[in-house]
Specification:
This protein is an alpha+beta fold. The protein has one domain: CBS-domain. Helix content is 43%, strand content 20%. The chain contains five helices and five strands. The strands form two sheets. A three-stranded mixed beta sheet has the order 1-2-3. Strands 4-5 form a two-stranded antiparallel ribbon. The protein is elongated and about 65 Å long. The mean pLDDT is 93.
């Protein structure tokens, strides 16, 4: 089973973020430009939250707020769950399932090393299973 470190090595370490005082509108605009579902929220370079499309749908639209006036700090999730790069993909997926989250920032020695989504983890597990099946088929065919 692959580790988060191995997944980031193939996926990349790029992380998109926004400041807590910025507007929800600007966060949505950045997410759309980068084709991503969440942004880390920073305050002077430190992670203070995460904001997602789900936060927008549940905490802005459904409450009748205006995205151009609402600061990200009003809707972000401030209890950010992070993982270490040594964690296995399987364990990270289990953590995401248990906590009902879709994005995990990766911290190595307190420094941001990347972010993984539930989609990244599922793709990795499927690729590993396909490789395993292919190896089994080759083994069986060679008997």
């Amino acid at each position: 089973m692959a580790s988060i470190r191995q997944l980031l090595a193939s996926k990349g370490h790029e992380v998109w973020s926004i400041e807590r005082e910025d507007t929800v509108y600007n966060a949505l605009k950045l997410m759309a430009e980068k084709n991503i579902g969440a942004l880390l929220v920073l305050d002077r370079g430190k992670i203070v939250g995460i904001v997602s499309e789900r936060d927008y749908a549940r905490k802005v639209i459904l409450r009748g707020k205006a995205s151009v006036k609402t600061p990200v700090s009003e809707i972000m999730t401030s209890d950010v769950v992070t993982v270490d790069p040594q964690m296995s993909v399987k364990k990270a997926l289990s953590l995401m399932t248990d906590r009902h989250i879709r994005h995990l920032p990766v911290l190595e020695e307190g420094e941001l090393a990347g972010i993984v989504s539930i989609g990244d983890l599922v793709k990795n597990i499927i690729a590993e299973q396909e490789l395993f099946i292919s190896q089994l088929q080759s083994y069986i065919a060679g008997m």
